[in-house]
Amino acid sequence: MTHSLKHDYDLIIVGGGIVGLATGYQFLKKNPGQKLLILEKETELAQHQTGRNSGVIHSGLYYQPGSLKAKNCLDGYAALLEFCEQESIPHEVCGKVVVATSLEEINTLDILHKRGIANGLQGIKILEPEEIQEREPYCTSALKGLLVPQTGIVDYFSVAQAYAKIIKQDGGDIILGSSVLDIKPIKNKAEISTNSQSWTSRAAVICAGLQSDRLARKTEINLPLRILPVKGEYYELKCQSAGMVKNLIYPVPDPAFPFLGVHFTRMIQGGVECGPNAVFAFGREAYNKFDLNISDTLESIQWPGLWKIASKHWKMQVSEFYRSYSKKAFVSSLQKLIPSITINDIAVGTPGIRAQALDRTGNFLDDFDFRFSGNIIHVCNAPSPAATASLSIGKTIINRLSIMID
User: pTM of the predicted model, to two decimals?
Assistant: First the structure.
């Protein structure tokens, strides 16, 4: 297919999820009048990680002080709340309780407490069991708890749509149904080729989420990471049981994994999510239980890092798969936080797939990861709290971009 070439843009962003849209919003805010193009392969925006997000506004509790996650989450938290107020997007800072149900978890809870203080969280404090039950009456198994008042809830799909609305108002172009096939740095330009068209721009930012490593390899052949698709499956509390959770209840996370464990999340649009588990997905967009994408799966199993992490943590993954197929096992995990919950209290919810970067040695990348190829920036790892941090991530990228193209 012969593509005509356009030379119209100052910046092209690939990816119409919340990070790509926030980056476009920040670009036009800093550079009014410049020409922006956002390319999205789906026919609607925010269809993957953004649109399947549980909607938690993260406070910055879990992240290593000084890391990109910590800095961007803390800065992004304040910017997100201000944006939601400005755009009248429903949100609520309701707080959450992290609960320890064993002596070992109490030690980890104390570490989280200190980390939260180091990250500047306000009002964070240790709770005794009776104090936990004042906030969450059905959470009767906790030995200690950690109150995190700054945690909130929002609908990130609505946030993404608001970014897109402002981008269009400010003269930016958004093209849907446009799959990127190739990315090339050409002298002081970036050339982006899609299934129907090619463009050049002064710079490009690739925010492709579940496809980020594939596009990064267009300019960095020996990319030292791959995206491992990790499916999170949820249940929801039935209407008659929703009162068992007042706000958000989280377990103490396992320090060995970048996942927060099965938890309860009250959602801004109503209802309570329960989950997720964390299982290997047989496809980067294989949302349903029996979906299979053979090429995606072959690519994953050919990456040496997958086998190394599997050999270290196979017992955990077997238990996660068992919980995926056993509602009773899933309920058993939920009972760790709310002992009185039963199989009759929950119904199947909406699954999501997390793009988790994995290196060759079998280590999950814990922090955000940006790769630079001339005037092209690849966002290769932006898992949670990327939605909370989206405005800060966008600002960070645009500031770096200014240095690269000035």
Answer: 0.95
